[in-house]
Structures
1.
Amino acid sequence: MFDYKGKVALVTGASGGIGKQYAKELASRGSDVILVARSKEKLEALAAELSSTYRIRTYSLPTDLSKANSVASLAQQIVDLNLNVDILINNAGFGTHGRFETISNDEEQEMINLNISTIVGMTHQFLPYMQQQRSGIIVNVASLSSFQPIPYMATYAATKAFVLSFSESLFAENRHLGVRVLALCPGTTKTEFFDVIGTQNMPGGINGTPESVVKAGFKGIDKKQSYIIDGVKNYWIAQASRFMPRKFTAIMGERVTRPANIQIPASTVKQ
């Protein structure tokens, strides 16, 4: 079992949802917590709550990690605080929803930067120290969509497929160096995510909670897994895609996730 007491944990996207729950759980286990997100007010309120409740040190570092040079700037702030990161929770990210051509390229590029480039940059910054200490944890928040294409969320699903592959590779590289790397793959979860992308009508409903997702994350680390999926139902959904032709998976996915306002021409329905 990993001893969290006295460790320094960095949580991105910490102002709400899964990130906020991760910060609370780490603080309850005795870790000092560096909180990172865009909202200064939310971070400062959470920092005050955690330090008061759990008697640990908290650091609020408001940062927009989708911006150029933000990772290097954040890393320098942590150096200036004379801190080293033992636990890294790469949770910051967002999604887009709709027909690909209707989503602005700028928004898609910002999402790619945050969901992929930021995770790579954060790992470059903080993994070497963990390797030197021969101890550490990196949790990259992926998604159930890492395992199959998601029409109308095409770019988002592709970024999360990257996160899964990247994390599994780093897991293998670091398994003998004392650093545990995990891709945490939630299904639909009750957070602000679906408010941001503009839909609450997901197939099967929105059933997961930040608490269940974070609990799965700690379980995956304890068992030294390379990835973990939140929920038994979600696990079998992910595994089913391995046994079906990729074309069939994509077409069925399009039928299931198609927004109500999108009409398919009758001449193409059977294609």
Note: The chain has one domain: 8-268.
2.
Amino acid sequence: MDMNADEALAIIETVLDNDEQLNDVQELIFKQCWQGRDSYEEIAKLGNYDNEYIKSVAAKLWKKLSEIFGEKVKRNNLKSVLKRYLRRQNITIHKTKIIGVNVSGKSINEGNIKGGKVFSNVGFDSCINDSYKSGIKENKSESSEVTNTSEEKQLSEISANLQKTEYFWKEWCFYSLEQVKIAEAFDKAGVVFFPNSKAQLPNFEDQSYKQVDFLIYYNSKLGVLEIQYPDSQKQEKRDDFLSKQGICLIEYCDSVQCLEDPDQVVQEFIMKFI
């Protein structure tokens, strides 16, 4: 099942009751284990936590997920457990439904979405039925029986649509919680920024335009802040071109740090403009 950590978390949030949502430390552990990081000591260092504290939080997290999914969950079987859980569910087609999830981790219904709130729009062409406790009732007229031959196709459709997850903050659209956290930090610091900016670049055969996470204007200078995810690579050709055009400050910041300490990331970045 081709699903990244954020997409898996979006499913977990719809399964959990409002008062059971994962906190920041639990999300950190879940995402790092989903991405294949098996050492609690390494996770503790990434989040600047005590090793024993991470072990204790992880144990409670696996217990909570085990109760939800009906089988023992461990750090090295997350993907297989979630895949089996999805297969056990009847899948209902909802072509126009949107599930809102705010970045604080609490589920919100469509009627509770208001301007100015930070939330995630997860557009499901296919979504899990009411056993997900998301408040969306099964539409009997649209439901179809899941057969063994169609399970893989429907799981693929779920994963494909989850990849369209969008996070909104002050009516800006972002593609990850890390981007939202950095945007909030720039806003608090009083820095002018242009999120997910696209630039038309000449003589680029693979793609004529390139996108940066944040284009920053500060102290009469331009800079770029990129969020570095474990599975992403630096765009050296693009960065070299931008540098030649006068955008010399291009920084890649670790995604975990952007999520856990965005204010520090932003402060360290803008100090380089001085």
Note: The first strand starts at residue 91 and ends at 93.
3.
Amino acid sequence: MTLAFVVPGLDEAASEKAIAILQNRLSQEQEAALVLKHAHWNVTGPNFIAVHEMLDPEVEAVLAQADETAERIATLGGTPDGRADAIVRNRTWKSFDAEGRVGTEEYLKALIEYYDAFIADDRKAIAELDELDVISSNIIQDHVQELEKFQWFMRSHLA
């Protein structure tokens, strides 16, 4: 990886490690937006409209997270990769399983499981970033707070 520059207070090695972690998070954030939109289009059954309408604000929130992550990568002197093949190349998580037109309960259970891994991966990234760049860590901490809140919405909907 060739850095355009190194921000004051970080060395090149720490910057490169932080960028790699953030790129992985960017890829999962982008995929999550696609997964949520897929569910939005294909959810069916009881409480359809409630779940359908609940998903769009989360799509927007996750896309905003991806934008913030990409901008942090650029701020650190890196080049964020937002291409579709980067999502696949950077995947270290299980892909989303629900396909096609599926009932609300099944979609929400699949999304909750997806978010379990998403949140766990973000928390792992936070621990790694704490040692490298506290600013990047704080950004991902804010993202986790939003993800956990939405997961609570989904769990509450099933309760």
Note: The chain is about 75% helix and 5% strand.
